[in-house]
Amino acid sequence: METRQVKRKVLLLGDGAVGKTSLIRKFVMDKFDDKYISTIGTKVTKKEMQLKLPDEEIRLTLMIWDVLGQKGYKAVQASSYKGGEGVMMVCDLTRKDTLDGLKDYWIPELRKVVGEVPMIFVGNKSDLVEERQITEEEFCAMAEEFGSSHYTSSAKTGENVEDIFKTLGEVVFGTGTGEIGKPAAEEALEISSLLDVADLIINDFCEAHGDRDTAMAMIRQQFSSVGVNIERPDKETLLKAAERLAELERGFKDDFAVKTTLAKRKRLIEQHG
Questions:
Q1: Block means of pLDDT (10 residues each) for the chain, length 273 residues?
Q2: Are 32 and 167 members of one domain?
Q3: Exposure string for 225-235, b = 16+ CB within 10 A, e = fewer
Q4: Are residues 233 and 160 in the same domain?
């Protein structure tokens, strides 16, 4: 039987702490870690899976993008959406607002960039039965509104994790990237808070570096080392992070560009701090 190799980019979207990273870790490495670590930027994980068709076997490589779950980082998130061919919309069954967030924030922002792409809805943390706030009826209604399948899951127990990713793989197999809309990152961004400034700095650094994966890892390290809180960035730590990133940029920018960029970032931080 002929074996064909196919690669697809899929996104995991949803509010912070809904369990996106834990679902990926459970699927890829069969490990669960209940210590919540906020994902800064985007993490990309590769996983191969087999799909059997009547006349051929498909070796499907999923490039799984775990996207920053903090609302408001629209430029960073929009850059991650580009080329996405399937999406797992994840909510936390113990937090009703995370289901509302899918409809009110994540889906509209995604569609600004890639239009309509196949989605599946996942209600995570099904093991926390006593704490559940989202009813089965509410969850089903949301998925049906967007013509999507839905699952409940637990990254802790492993409930449905394999099935969810298998379904996502089947959904994206055979679909091209299609027409990609104008990235929100290319639109005029409104800067009204330090969170917007942090979003601009992260995206600008990644664009200048060129290798988004490597750039994100560098940002995570520097933000963590100076104590930037991505949910509520403050002036002091953001200024320190800007200095750290400027030092790194000397490796791929000329001195004038580094100084100009740093001055602009500091000015924005001071204005909105």
A1: 86 96 93 74 89 83 94 94 95 98 98 93 97 96 92 96 92 52 45 93 92 92 95 96 96 88 92 90
A2: yes
A3: eeebebeebee
A4: no
